[in-house]
Amino acid sequence: MEPxxxxxxxxxxxxxxxxxWGFELHLNEDAVQxxxxxxxxxxRLAKLLDPELAPVxxxxxxxxxxxxxxxxxxxxxxxxxxxxxxxxLIPLPDSQPTHVDDxxxxxxxxxxxxxWSEDVxxxxxxxxxxPALASFGGRLMCVHRGAADDSFLLRTTHDPDQGWSRDQRFxxxxxxxxxxxxxxxxxxYCVHKGDGGDSxxxxxxxxxxxWSQDQCFPAHLSATGPAVTVFGxxxxxxxxxxxxxxxxxxxxxxxxxxxxxxxxPLHTTSKVAVAAFQGRLHCVHRNSDGDLWWATTADGTNWxxxxxxxxxxxxxxxxxxxNDRLHCVYVGGGSDGALYWSVLDGDQWTPxxxxxxxxxxxPALIFYRGKYGTQxxxxxxxxxxxx
Length: 387
Known about the structure:
Layout: E1 5-9, E2 12-18, E3 22-27, H1 29-33, H2 41-48, H3 54-63, H4 65-71, E4 77-82, E5 90-93, E6 104-111, E7 115-116, E8 120-126, E9 132-136, E10 139-145, E11 152-159, E12 163-164, E13 168-174, E14 180-184, E15 187-193, E16 200-206, E17 215-221, E18 227-231, E19 234-240, E20 247-253, E21 262-267, E22 273-277, E23 280-286, E24 291-297, E25 304-312, E26 318-322, E27 325-331, E28 338-345, E29 348-349, E30 353-358, E31 364-368, E32 377-383
């Protein structure tokens, strides 16, 4: 981060912090309340930003002034924008949440030369558990369970021309755990556990316009959320057993029906992660000792344990392929709460790198490049920290 620059008029203070991924414009309480009356705001912003950006930034601030005032909690506001869209100016309270259960969703991006960015909070998206991500029809979709007692699935979509949408409720799809998504044969599939005591797995599809009615798997039960990916000509789903059965099970969809569950020689206490990489199917799972273990298969049937990751975790991991490498993000063990990142390097995982992000639940990970993107990025979305 470059050093902050600032200006002050009486009690009005405005400063900017620039980053490789974007910038934060900080307004103190007086600045928030007097936005429309600050004289020469554009000229002063020009000293902090590119002069060509200053007029449009000023206009965007004035357009959103009511939203900015609404977000202010008495400590001022920071307006966050990525360089790919400098006028996005997402308003956030200029302080960390003080409550013990932060159920907001956050995003962070990875660049090979810069590492992971700082966390940025979604303005109005809340979840009780971790989300799922998928790219479909040129849009990025995030699906998650509601917060607290809201067990409905919700979705927010990023359209390159319109930004992030507000949460939209699924028609009648409920869950108590993390959902999973994958694109298969020109449709987006979402697989999820039922709500509360319903251990059944359910699936629904999206055709670009609407989600289908939930359909129950024939006889597939789980105590946690599932994981899905495409391998060969099948949509593969891995999941934990129900109740005290900590075995990992596998089922595959051929476009018509799901195959019977097959018990694998793997065990997990949390949601597993699965990804296809270099002609093999890879699974990372949390064993009963709290450590992450890694298994692979070349044919989707015969699994072999490939080794242990360098870590202890309190929840399930996430996997994604980026820059021809397999990446894994997971939460530290116990009360750590930090997110960690490892990369498969040949036949070994790199030691974990601690990220600035914090959370407790299974994160979501995806390689994504938007319509106007100039770089490829690895995107991680996760729920906030529950102390």
